[in-house]
Amino acid sequence: MNEKMSYKKNCVAALFPETMKSYFHKIIDTYQNIAEIRIRKNGPVQILCNGKFTYLSRDGELCPDAGGGICLTADEFDELFRHICRHSVYAFEQELKNGYLTVEGGHRIGVVGRTVWEGDTLIGIKNFNALNIRIAHEIKGAGDGVLPFIFEEGVLKSTLIVSLPGCGKTTLLRDVIRKISNGSKYCLPLNVSLIDERSEIASSYLGIAQNDVGRHTDVLDSCPKAAGIMMVLRSMSPQVIAVDELGGEADYNALLQAFYLGCRIVATIHGVDYETLRKNVHMQQLLQQGCFERIVFLQPGGRPGIIKEICNEKGEVIWS
């Protein structure tokens, strides 16, 4: 295990108070295979390991059914949550309002509980009842297979990565950004502006990217995509803009502005095939304008990050 991976592993271990180390130390030892640790108040501790869900027993072993798994009591859950928040939940109030917080090592912890609203504005979450520790893994080299298809004579083709949830599109995006930023045999280094709305790609902690997103990448962390795109267009003169999981109409309109200004775009979206993309009226406009010259579809099921096919902007398969 290299130094950076060891550091990230130690950051996971630090999330658990001493009273719970005996439950969790064995899964931390298999850190490289763990993707998620789901912990529910009075519910089973669920582990996503090697692409399959399993459960954690009180002696720290993995077991196949919930009945043999450990259930943290309400008091244990609250102790764990306070420990993660360094015994000052108030200090993380703004970040928790978004439904997650990013901790040292770049690991992201999703939370749910009772939401508090003022009119149509969410002002906070309280009475937390479940959390999901998403382990920050990097797979360097994940983007090697697509690089020959997204460059032409040293010029980057704007690229859209498409898959169902959990198929590895964010992992692929991260490595493609790194390759574009650092340069490769296919191109010189390019200045990339990464709009990391959910702190999931660079996994920034206190302003420092915990994942390697390249030497020439500028990260705008915890910023809505549409607003972030317009901000970097005004301030950073990016050659490439990268975003994860396109959503509302504003995201598409902002990308269209970036395209008109000559920026290359690398993005991801949930989807299955080219026809499902065309049913999205906003995506249809981007495709008609030629905003995405390469569309990478990932294979559902099995190991994440497997490329199913690569198409051009017309949906014509150029690699399968």
Describe the protein in words.
The protein has helices at 3-13, 21-29, 74-84, 93-96, 147-150, 169-182, 225-235, 249-260, 274-278, 281-289, and strands spanning 34-40, 46-49, 52-56, 62-63, 100-102, 108-118, 121-134, 151-152, 155-156, 159-163, 192-196, 204-205, 208-209, 217-221, 240-243, 264-270, 294-298, 307-312, 317-319. It has two domains: 3-134, Beta-Lactamase, CATH 3.30.450; 147-319, Rossmann fold (3-Layer(aba) Sandwich), CATH 3.40.50. The mean pLDDT is 92. Helices cover 28% and strands 29% of the residues.
Shape annotation: globular
Individual helix count: 10
Question: What is the fold-level CATH name, i.e. the topology of the largest domain?
Answer: Rossmann fold
User: Which CATH class of the largest domain?
Assistant: Alpha Beta
Report the uncertain regions.
Answer: none
Specify the biggest β-sheet.
8 strands, mixed
Q: Beta-strand level of the residues, as a percent range?
A: 25-35%
Helix content: 25-40%
Q: Classify the secondary structure makeup into a structural class.
A: alpha/beta
Which keywords apply here?
single chain, about 325 residues, alpha/beta, Beta-Lactamase, Rossmann fold, eight-stranded mixed sheet, seven-stranded antiparallel sheet, about 30% helix, about 30% strand, globular
Short synopsis of the structure:
By secondary structure, the chain is of the alpha/beta class. The chain contains ten helices and 19 strands.
Helices and strands, with pairings:
Layout lengths: L2 H11 L7 H9 L4 E7 L5 E4 L2 E5 L5 E2 L10 H11 L8 H4 L3 E3 L5 E11 L2 E14 L12 H4 E2 L2 E2 L2 E5 L5 H14 L9 E5 L7 E2 L2 E2 L7 E5 L3 H11 L4 E4 L5 H12 L3 E7 L3 H5 L2 H9 L4 E5 L8 E6 L4 E3 L1
Helix pairs in contact: 1-2, 7-8, 8-10
